[in-house]
Amino acid sequence: MKSDIRVCSAWREAHDRPVYSLSATCPSCGAETVNSAPAPLDPTDPHGEYRRALKRRNR
Ligand SMILES: [Zn+2]
């Protein structure tokens, strides 16, 4: 499922915790926001497929 919820791209530097927003910029620091969904499902993660396969096997 595609999420419209975005997260401040600089939250690690600017905030104590992820700052979520529906706008294109962070309401707190003004940095660009990024879609919050792709991060945990990063297709470039070299271990992603292995990890998912492991998860399926354990189920
Ligand atoms: Zn921010």
Automatic annotation (TrEMBL):
InterPro entries according to UniProt: H/ACA_rnp_Nop10, H/ACA_rnp_Nop10_sf, Nop10_arc-typ
Keyword annotations from UniProtKB, A to Z: Ribonucleoprotein, Ribosome biogenesis, rRNA processing
Top-level taxon: Archaea
Gene Ontology terms for molecular function: snoRNA binding
Pfam families: Nop10p (PF04135)
Transmembrane in keyword set: no
GO cellular component: ribonucleoprotein complex
Residue numbers spanned by region Disordered: 35-59
One annotated GO biological process: rRNA processing
Keyword Acyltransferase attributed: no
Segments passing through the bilayer: none
Family per similarity comment: Belongs to the NOP10 family.
Job description of the protein: Involved in ribosome biogenesis; more specifically in 18S rRNA pseudouridylation and in cleavage of pre-rRNA.
Name recorded for this polypeptide: Ribosome biogenesis protein Nop10
Origin species: Natrinema ejinorense
Name of the gene this protein is made from: nop10
